[in-house]
From TrEMBL:
The keyword Protein biosynthesis does not apply. It is found in: Cytoplasm. Residues 19-485 form the Amine oxidase domain. Belongs to the protoporphyrinogen/coproporphyrinogen oxidase family. Coproporphyrinogen III oxidase subfamily. PANTHER family: PROTOPORPHYRINOGEN OXIDASE. Keywords: Cytoplasm, FAD, Flavoprotein, Heme biosynthesis, Oxidoreductase. It comes from the Bacteria. The gene is hemY. The lineage of its organism: Bacteria, Bacillati, Actinomycetota, Actinomycetes, Micromonosporales. It comes from Plantactinospora endophytica. This is Coproporphyrinogen III oxidase.
């Protein structure tokens, strides 16, 4: 047994080497004394979590998160953009070349209606081409839609005010693309906080949508999304380097125990564990492994955290040979069948409602969406997302079966027989996307409050608590680090 005890400089452990943990480590490095020992423990053999850049047919392709929002809801740069600037990647940020998306309705693609908030319309006329809102239901009752403590599911509120078609054809596929979840099961407050806040003051849903959008304006001409040229894994590597932390890969933390003045981590195999004592811990793990560690710290907190469930997904990437991407744009109506291999030039991707009965729920055309990925030989790179919450059995197919199904379904939706792929890759993400049921934010608040009271040098961070997306995860890690810095009471001058 290797017992490493504390002495001298502050020691902080970050458990989890995804972008959340790395953002926490970097903030700790920036704010704590220079001699602070910061160690990142990552169970797998690589940093980055769900950020993973790979290669397909000689091209750079994302096998995980593809891009991030450029703006923070409060205004200014998002936390992901700020992190990229902090680690020297400002010049590597690129924005989409095209941004037109489509919806699959009745087996055909229709342009995505503009001006919705995660599919919820503020202008009912704008969505009439793809869904028939029940406008008569969204009447002004003279009081706010929601009380101060109400947290319905997204589907519950939108169905009540605008009807089933808006949920099934617009909101559900939007949420399915982001969370792999269902509108009728996801918390409004956790997944659409801006709309939830507006619904506590507005008396109609369309009014709440307009108010929420007005509260988070985007300057004209500001791109919605960005990515890193060369792959988002560059952001992972740059953050790790800037943090100047000791990186421990293949280092599973099996136990977390409070000891006088700090924490003891039990690391590695049962037969030969390594014991490490530190002053503080940032726990940047998914909820389930975090709950297991918290069980030895506070049973009630572990139970609160462990209630969160996750959806599994598979990302199927295909490289298709030329001809080059078509010059004809996506028409305003349903596209007519095109020539073999043709993808509309301004189509960045599409979403598929669950009611369509397809395996795929979303597809992105990388070489249409991102100019820096376009190939001189006209190779088309596309990626489809497979798997919704509760449909994990569909992911049990072999890789080649998933590739065949995706190729067939994309061909059918485009109205064109796509050529056989010259390369493919299937990335499976088991338990990847949190499913925030009603009351999630209250449970997280209760867990964090209990820890602050009894164990203030232990902070929770990550998508399991604060939301999905690279900016949210970065902000979560940074906030957890700030809590630790405040408690330790030591920072750089």
């Amino acid at each position: 047994m290797n017992d490493t005890t504390r002495a001298g400089a502050l020691r902080v452990a970050v458990v989890g080497g995804g972008i959340t943990g790395l953002a926490a480590a970097l903030r700790l490095r920036d704010r704590l004394p220079a001699d602070t020992e910061i160690t990142v423990y990552e169970q797998s053999g690589a940093l980055g979590g769900k950020l993973r850049t790979g290669s397909l047919a000689g091209a750079t392709v994302e096998f995980g998160a593809e891009a991030f929002l450029t703006r923070d809801p409060a205004g200014g740069d998002s936390a992901a953009v700020a992190l990229a600037r902090r680690v020297g990647l400002a010049d590597a940020l690129v924005n989409p070349a095209v941004g037109r998306a489509a919806l699959a309705i009745g087996g055909e693609l229709r342009p995505m209606p503009p001006g919705t908030l995660v599919g919820v319309p503020g202008d009912l006329a704008a969505v009439a081409a793809v869904a028939r809102p029940a406008a008569e239901r969204d009447t002004d009752g003279g009081r706010p839609l929601l009380g101060p403590d109400e947290d319905p599911t997204v589907g519950e509120l939108v169905r009540r005010r605008l009807g089933d078609e808006v949920v099934d054809r617009l909101v559900d596929p939007m949420l399915g693309g982001v969370y792999a979840g269902r509108a009728d099961e996801l918390s409004l407050a956790a997944t659409m906080p801006g709309l939830a806040r507006a619904a506590r003051t507005e008396s109609t849903l369309t009014g709440a949508v307009r108010a929420a959008m007005a509260a988070a304006p985007r300057p004209a001409g500001t791109p919605v999304f960005a990515t890193v040229s060369g792959g988002v894994s560059r952001l992972v590597a740059a953050a790790a380097e800037a943090a100047r932390a000791e990186i421990r890969l293949n280092a599973a933390v099996r136990e977390l125990l409070p000891v006088p003045g700090g924490w003891r981590l039990v690391i590695g195999p049962t037969r030969e564990p390594e014991l490490v004592e530190v002053d503080a811990v940032v726990l940047a793990l998914p909820a389930r492994p975090a709950a297991r560690l918290l069980g030895a710290v506070d049973v009630a907190v572990g139970a609160l955290v462990g209630r969160l469930d996750y959806a599994s997904v598979a990302l199927v990437s295909l490289a298709l040979p030329g001809p080059p991407v078509a010059a004809d744009p996506l028409p305003d109506a349903v596209p007519s069948p095109g020539a073999r291999g043709v993808v509309p030039a301004d189509l960045s991707g599409f979403l598929v409602p669950a009611s369509e009965g397809t395996l795929i729920k979303a597809a992105t055309f990388f070489t249409s969406k991102w100019a820096h990925l376009r190939r001189p030989d006209g190779t088309v790179l596309l990626r489809a997302s497979v798997g919704r919450y509760g449909e994990e059995h569909l992911l049990q197919r072999a890789d080649d079966e998933l590739v065949t199904a995706v190729h067939r379904e994309v061909s059918e939706l485009l109205g064109a027989g796509l050529p056989e792929p010259v390369g493919s890759h299937v990335q499976r993400w088991g338990g990847a996307l949190p499913q925030y049921t009603p009351g999630h934010l209250d449970r997280v608040a209760a867990a964090r409050s209990a820890l602050r009271t009894a164990h203030p040098t232990l902070a929770l961070a990550g998508a399991g608590y604060d939301g999905v997306g690279i900016p949210v995860c970065v902000r979560s890690g940074e906030t957890a680090a700030e809590e630790i810095i405040k408690v330790l009471g030591v920072s750089r001058a």
